[in-house]
Amino acid sequence: MKILVTGGAGFIGSHTCLALLERGHEVIVIDSYVNSNSQSLQRVVELLNSNNLNRSTGIETCSADLRDEKVLDQLFSAHEKLGKSIEAVIHFAGLKSVNDSVHNPLKYWDVNVGSSINLLSVMNRYNCRTIVFSSSATIYGFSNNKPIKENTLIKPINPYGTTKVAIEQLLNDLYNSQPDKWRIANLRYFNPIGAHHSGMLGEAPIGVPSNIFPYITQVAAGVRDEFTIFGNDWPTKDGTGVRDYIHVMDLAEGHVLALEYLVNNQNQIINLNLGTGKGTSVLELLNTFKRVNNINIPLRFSSRREGDCGSVVADNSLAALCLEWTPERSLEQMCIDGWKWQSLNPKGYI
Ligand code: UFG
Asked: Is the pLDDT score of 57 beyond 80?
């Protein structure tokens, strides 16, 4: 299939482009590169070449902001005129910092929701009505430390999460307006970490990372002095926060399967949790990282981070059933691959 990947140069996007190309799909990436680097896509092509898997002509790229509807329209129109229309979209593009969203809600609504409206309008115009949307577990109102099912109460607590819910609602409204036309999957990610096992692709945050894994790898690399654990008084196994960490390649493969599932089944809108179903505490993650990489991580404890919750773990049974998908890579593998990426690319994609 010919697939448009918005935000395809980013962390999850680039790994997904690789998984799509390995599967024989054609990929067009549209990315503004405000939070990513085009190098990631060159690396994807290098990886394909090195595996003799260069079945396609590579990745077509378009450097643009999705809020520019004209560019999007031209992209769809050009492919239609060539007789090879864009058949489906995987929509990653958007801003993703929880903290930034609290201080700049208008920016988040404009970029995340505004660009989604443009994208869906253009898709509708060109009869492209299959979309996999990058949603997040952040939309759930957490409860009872139980694994979270897709029908758990939706109650985001920050503007980033609110924009994800708004886009899901928009997709829902769109589906209901033409249920015989749209095929939609909202993929709700838990905590993606790790990197491609080659060390060629990985997460390259700009500035001080706010997420746990890039912070750990930067402390391990000596870029930062110590790691701070936010709270040791949570009602969890060791008092530190528990999350469901998933290897980014397992997540990427989940996208390919979700797309193929949509195409091969009846029209529908479906919400799927992509996580492993296993809870890991901050201390467990740190200890695993130290053990498998034989490296020390200086650490200290501080109070809880505002807006955090104790435990967030997926019930992934629906995704496992529908997509015939099982996340295969262990926590150890996530730590090994993530450290390889950091060691080989101390400055990210430069
Ligand atoms: N943590 C620390 N120290 C740090 C960073 C994080 O102890 O320096 C802890 C947090 O308190 C939490 C765990 O590590 O217990 C994970 O924190 P992250 O910031 O890495 O991830 P979150 O679960 O808070 O949030 C992430 C993404 C959101 C997404 C959410 C989905 O940042 O965008 O997962 O569950 F929505």
From this structure: no
